[in-house]
């Protein structure tokens, strides 16, 4: 009825155009998640430290990043950093660094909430055993916070995967770019975007279902 023809889409199209974009999107998601959690945890600890020298810069960073659209951060980094250092760094590397820096602000808030959800009794118990602040965090608080926050962290990762499509703004070859390129070459742009939407939906819906199952298991363990 809409004049759509999906017959052009086959394994040859996937291997030539879609596969590499999918691999990059997954790699970007994994690296940004791991890097964002590490940097985000550091930012969360800085904000909870009670020391102004740590709290103020961490708060400015987190609130600043969360107040700016991701696509603008991607563009700024891609355009300004090469101008500052005097050489291009490439769209893929630029996207990776930007995503880690941006997602750290969101993971920071998740981790901060997870740490604050641990009862003061746990903290006092660690102190009673003679543990230092760092030992208390590393051995008692953070392991419990991570377990409590796993469903939320995975949900943020799903959102992150969706956001990887924004790297089109700097020409990085992601999953959406693969579909777009194939659609333009074969003159099937509408079909390509439709298929891309289906693929994103299947992946994200499947991951969301797994997160709900995991959340149920964690609730039972508690």
Question: Can you walk through the features of this model?
Answer:
With 222 residues, the chain is mainly α. It is built from eight helices and no strands. The chain has helices spanning 11-48, 52-66, 70-85, 91-116, 120-128, 133-163, 175-185, 189-221. The longest helix has 38 residues, at 11-48. It is flat, with a radius of gyration of 21 Å. It starts with 10 loop residues before the first helix and ends with a helix. The model has no long low-confidence stretch (mean pLDDT 87).
Distinctive features:
flat, 81% helix, 222 residues, mainly alpha, 8 helices
Short description:
By secondary structure, this protein is mostly helical. It is 81% helix and 0% strand.
Global geometry: flat
Uncertain segments are none
Number of helices: 8
The rounded distance between the terminal residues' Cα atoms is: 52 Å
Write down how many β-strands occur, each being a DSSP E stretch of 2 or more residues: 0
| Helicity level | over 70%
The pLDDT mean sits at: 87
Topology:
Layout: H1 11-48, H2 52-66, H3 70-85, H4 91-116, H5 120-128, H6 133-163, H7 175-185, H8 189-221
